[in-house]
Fold this sequence. Notes:
By secondary structure, the chain is mainly beta.
Amino acid sequence: MSNRVVxxxxxxxxxxxxxxxxxxxxxxxxxxxxxxxxxxxxxDVISVGYMPSVTEFVTGYKCQxxxxxxxxxxx
Length: 75
């Protein structure tokens, strides 16, 4: 399934990646279930792999119910 409902809106993989990144991305893979619950509201979390730049690949995570999002970058 390539599109998912996030906070009441249907989003594409590219749009989901932009929600996580806060900026436009070059490319995004299909959306997948993350098999984890949101740490803020307990809702379902989905993931998307994307490239914010030519030299970087990131996996982003977004709650389908609230504003929580994160990525796998090391701090």
